[in-house]
Design brief:
Blueprint lengths: L1 E8 L2 H13 L7 E4 L14 H4 L2 H26 L10 H22 L11 H5 L3 E8 L3 H11 L4 E6 L7
Antiparallel strand pairs: 1-3, 1-4, 2-3
Length: 171
Amino acid sequence: MSRRIYWLVPDVASAQQVLKDLLLARITERQIHFVGRDGMDLSGLPTANILQTSDVVRAAQMGLVVGGATGAAAGVLAAVWFPIVGDTPQWGIAAVLAMIGGGFGAWAASMIGVSTPSGRLRRFEGAIEQGQILLMVDVPASRVKEIEKLLGASHPEAKFEGEEPNIPAFP
């Protein structure tokens, strides 16, 4: 299981040095994510993507649940009150409408979630707006202390901001 470690780095030069140190510690670029304020030049640094900086995943999950439940409820009503063939309820329509509702709900909610900042990063917004750079490193649980010690010793200018034990599977 991986854990996400958060650090605040004061500037781009420091972030580039942190990146080099992490790469030398055999942390891949895929596991390293930097977030800076809008317009900040982070070229040469692996920046966080939309899945890591927005609430799109959580919103899509909620949309799937709400849309699926709404579709299932509408399907049950349609199956009971408006059977397609004969007088017996057609339960297949409930399953079909649940899948359609879930898909539509996930799509619609993800369109909203993509423009909503991540709740996981909300506590860092002030520091990022002041020009600091947020570093997120996803490492196996067995290497967390090692990486924290490495960055703490080699980068006193960086500030450790904690770790998160439950990171999403793909963002």
